Amino acid sequence: MTKAGDSVSASTKGKKTGADEVILGPTGRPYQGFPTPKPLDSHGPARIIALCNQKGGVGKTTTTINLAASLAGYGRRVLAIDFDPQGALSAGLGIQTHDVETIYDLLLDTKRNPREVIVETRVEGLDILPANIDLSAAEVHLVNEVARETILARVLRKVASDYDVILIDCQPSLGLLTVNALTAAHGVLIPLECEFFALRGVALLVETIDKVRDRLNPAIELDGVLATMYDPRTLHSREVLERVVEAFGDDVLETVIGRTVKFPDASVSGMPITEFAPEHAAAQAYLRLARELVARGAVA
Ligand SMILES: Nc1ncnc2c1ncn2[C@@H]1O[C@H](COP(=O)(O)OP(=O)(O)O)[C@@H](O)[C@H]1O
Ligand SMILES: [Mg+2]
User: Fold this and answer.
1) Ligand nearest to the CA of 264
2) In 3-state terms, what secondary structure has residue 214?
3) Maximum CA extent, the chain
4) Is 63 domain-assigned?
5) 94 alpha carbon to ligand 2 midpoint, in Å?
6) CB 3.0-4.6 Å disulfide test: which of 39, 46, 228, 297 passes with 163?
7) pTM of the model
8) Average pLDDT in the 9-36 region?
9) Over the stretch 163-216, which tens digit does the pLDDT of each residue have?
10) Which CATH number belongs to the domain containing residue 137 in this structure?
11) What 3-state class would DSSP assign to 252?
12) Where are the beta strands (DSSP E) in 200-297?
C-alpha cells in the first residue's frame, strides 16, 4: 500500500475494510502514501501559502514550523514568516526577537531590503522573518496607507526568487494583517482542531477568503484544510473529522495530525518536532503533509 518514504503511524492508520483489504485513512478515503519529492534543479520563485484561522490554538504555528522544516528537509528553500505579534513562530524556531529588526520594520518601510531582516534558523534551508510585539501596532500604523492590504505582498515580491515556498503564520484574527497575508498568498491552508466548535467561525474565514479573492487577489486558492489534534481513540474526534469532511470534501488533506504532548515539548526546546523527535509519529505526519502538498502541486 505505502510508497517509499512513507510511514504509517499509529495516528494515521485507518481500519481495514474486509476482503478487499483497502486501508482507509482517517478522512475515510483509501490510505495512500505520497512519494518522496524529487530534488529541485533550480529554486524559486516561491509559492506563498498563508496558514490561517482566526481561532487561536488550532495548530497554525505548530504546522508552520513543522511543515517548513519538513519541506526544507526535502531540499526546498523555505522562508517562514512570523505574522503574529506573539512571536510564537520565532520562539518555536529558537529565534530571539528582543531588540532585533522584524517584519514590522519591513511593513513600515517597504523600500527596505527584506534580506537585512531575514535570519537563518538552525534548520538547513529554512529562514525566518521574525516578529515581536511591535507588530501589534501595525494595524493602527498601516490603516491610512495607500494600498494598505498589499504591503506584505510588496515586501515578499523582493525575496520570492530566493525561495521555493514561503509560509505565513497568521495571527488569530481576520484583521488587516491577515488580509495582507491573504493578499500576498497564492494559497491558503486552514488548520482545524478536531474539537468541539472546530467549524464555528470557519464560514466567516471562508467569506473573508472569498472577499479577498473578489477584490484583491483573484488567484488565491484553498490549498487544503488540515485536521489537527486528532485523537483516533475518541468518538468525538472522529465525529468532528467526519463533519469537516462533509463540509470541505476533497479539500480536506488526507494527512491528519494526531494529538500528542510532543508538540509542547518541542516548542519549549525551540526546535521543530522533525528535529526534536524525528521518529515520532507526529514528525512523520508533518513529513507526510509536506509530501502530500508537493503531490497536490501546492509546493514545487
Ligand atoms: N497535534 C498537537 N497535539 C497536541 N498539542 C498540540 C498539537 N499541535 C499544537 N499543539 C499545542 O497546542 C498549542 C496551540 O498550538 P499553536 O500551533 O500555537 O496554535 P495557533 O498558532 O493556531 O494558535 C501549543 O501549545 C502547541 O504546542
Ligand atoms: Mg500561532
Assistant:
1) 1
2) helix
3) 65
4) yes
5) 15
6) 46
7) 0.93
8) 73
9) 999 999 999 999 999 999 999 999 999 999 999 888 988 999 999 999 999 999
10) 3.40.50.300
11) strand
12) 221-228
Residue 222 included in any domain: yes
The domain in which residue 245 lies consists of 43-296
In a domain, 16, yes or no: no
Q: Are 192 and 60 in contact (CB under 8 A)?
A: no
Number of domain units in the chain: 1
Name the grid cell of 147. 494600498
Pairing between β-strand 221-228 and β-strand 187-193 as defined by DSSP bridges = parallel
What is the tens place of the pLDDT at every residue in 64-94? 999 999 999 999 999 999 999 999 999 999 9
**Which phi and psi (to 5°) does residue 212 adopt?**
-65, -40
Question: Which of 26, 24, 22, 38 minimizes the C-alpha distance to 164?
Answer: 38
| Residue 26 placed within a domain | no
Indicate the SS3 state at residue 56: coil
Q: Report the distance separating Cα 223 and Cα 265, nearest Å.
A: 29
Helix H or strand E encompassing 184: helix 176-184
CA of 21 to the centre of ligand 1 (A): 34
Closest CA to 238 of 34, 7, 2, 11: 11
Q: Which of 168, 263, 265, 284 most suits a substitution to test ligand 1, by most atoms within 8 Å of the C-beta?
A: 263
Using CB atoms within 10 Å of the CB of residue 36, give its burial: 0 to 12 exposed, 13 to 18 middle, 19+ buried. Answer: middle
Which of 62, 189, 269 is the pocket-test mutation for ligand 1 (most atoms within 8 Å of CB)?
A: 62
Residues with Cβ < 8 Å from 299, sequence gap 6 or more? 47, 49, 71, 76, 164, 165, 290, 293
